[in-house]
């Protein structure tokens, strides 16, 4: 051995690696030699290009430069992580993308008062503006509104070029309906009572005038408003009645009809001073158009009444149809029962007739058998007589 005590290779026996036979150059032989070989399902067009992670791809970065005009929704800057923060009139998406919130011009800036190190992207309304806007100045337009000059309303004449007033206002404000009704009632009742007295004073009065006088007198007895100066045709409202007494107040049909006719004769147009619209009811609007679709209060049967009567007639017709069907059904049932009874009687008659025929045949058969028996009994006696002879 040497001094280095290094062993020589000849003293060790190394394991010999088994030799692997080389596959055949032909494809068939190679496939046979190597079992379970996989093939690519898609034809390879070349090696894949691995992108460089250290550089930014083209899809990231600034999409809008400074002082460039944008509209709401435009992408200003795309980034991975928040390098730029949304400032005035800007929004940040889920992937840290900065969007424009209003229409304006892009501004890249810093705001030390908001944060000392952050950089912001905002949108200014005017190109010459600088961001951030001072906090103490009046607030600029927000909410996506567009600046425009305020329109000045020109004063118009009260009467239009066609001669129609632009605005009609009632004098003295709204009418006191209760007071007007009381005054009209008193005046009309005074006139009616005067006419009734004059008609009653006549010696030769017609039946129609007598009936009118009686109706007016009867109406005067139930009125609640006292009448004064009836002889002269003037009336003044008297003492107010209680609610219990007012419930006894009954509007005669003739008075309601007269009031309605007086309203129909009017052609007064009442307009709302605020929006120049009608302030009357639908009946009044139809009256102004010379054709009303509203049923007068004195006329029996309004629109709802007509609808109810029509519905009632329809229901009655349906009930009549159902009753007719039930009657026809009962008649058919009676006919069926009568037919079954007739058939049963016929079958019974046929059965009885068949039983009678069978009985007659049986009796005839028995008689025939008896006759044959008697004949058979007489034959031996006749033979004996022949032998004796």
Automatic annotation (TrEMBL):
Gene3D superfamilies: 2.40.50.100
Lineage: Eukaryota, Fungi, Dikarya, Ascomycota, Pezizomycotina
Disordered: annotated span: 196-246, 343-389
Biased composition annotated in UniProt, kind: Basic and acidic residues: 357-389
Any Gene Ontology biological process: translation
UniProt-listed PANTHER family: LARGE RIBOSOMAL SUBUNIT PROTEIN BL27M, RIBOSOMAL PROTEIN L27
Biased composition (Basic residues): 344-356
Composition-biased stretches (Low complexity): 196-225
Superkingdom of the organism of origin: Eukaryota
Cellular compartment(s): Mitochondrion
Pfam families xref list: Ribosomal_L27
InterPro entries, A to Z: Ribosomal_bL27
Main location: mitochondrion
GO molecular function: structural constituent of ribosome
Cellular component aspect of the GO annotation: mitochondrial large ribosomal subunit
Stated family: Belongs to the bacterial ribosomal protein bL27 family.
Protein name stated in the entry: Large ribosomal subunit protein bL27m
Keywords linked to the UniProt accession: Mitochondrion, Ribonucleoprotein, Ribosomal protein
């Amino acid at each position: 051995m040497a001094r280095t005590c290094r062993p020589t290779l000849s003293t060790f026996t190394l394991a010999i690696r088994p030799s692997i036979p080389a596959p055949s150059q032909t494809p068939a032989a190679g496939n046979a030699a190597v079992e379970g070989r996989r093939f690519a399902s898609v034809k390879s067009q070349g090696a894949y290009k691995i992108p460089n992670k250290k550089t930014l791809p083209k899809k990231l970065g600034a999409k809008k430069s400074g002082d460039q005009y944008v509209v709401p929704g435009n992408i200003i800057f795309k980034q991975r992580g928040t390098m730029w923060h949304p400032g005035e009139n800007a929004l940040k998406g889920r992937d840290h993308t900065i969007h424009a919130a209003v229409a304006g011009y892009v501004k890249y800036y810093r705001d030390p008062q908001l944060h000392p190190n952050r950089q912001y992207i905002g949108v200014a309304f005017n190109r010459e503006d600088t961001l951030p806007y001072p906090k103490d100045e009046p607030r600029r337009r927000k909410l996506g509104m567009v600046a425009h000059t305020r329109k000045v309303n020109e004063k118009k004449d009260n009467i239009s070029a066609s001669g129609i007033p632009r605005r009609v206002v009632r004098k003295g404000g709204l009418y006191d309906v209760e007071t007007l009704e009381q005054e009209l009632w008193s005046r009309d009742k005074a006139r009616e009572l005067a006419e009734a007295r004059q008609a009653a004073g006549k010696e030769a009065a017609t039946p129609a005038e007598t009936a009118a006088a009686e109706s007016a007198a009867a109406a005067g007895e139930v009125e609640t408003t006292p009448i004064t100066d009836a002889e002269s045709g003037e009336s003044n409202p008297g003492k107010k009645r209680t609610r219990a007494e007012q419930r006894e107040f009954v509007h005669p049909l003739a008075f309601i009809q007269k009031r309605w006719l007086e309203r129909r004769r009017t052609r007064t147009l009442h307009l709302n001073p605020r929006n120049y619209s009608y302030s009357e009811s639908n009946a009044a609007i139809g009256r102004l158009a010379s054709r009303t679709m509203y049923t007068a209060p004195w006329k029996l049967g309004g629109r709802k009444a007509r609808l109810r009567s029509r519905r009632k007639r329809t229901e009655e017709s349906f009930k009549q149809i159902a009753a007719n069907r039930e009657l026809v059904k009962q008649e058919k049932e009676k006919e069926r029962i009568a037919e079954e009874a007739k058939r049963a009687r016929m079958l019974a008659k046929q059965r009885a007739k068949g039983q009678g025929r069978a009985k007659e045949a049986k009796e005839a058969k028995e008689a025939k058998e008896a006759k044959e028996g008697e004949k058979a009994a007489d034959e031996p006696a006749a033979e004996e007589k022949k032998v004796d002879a």
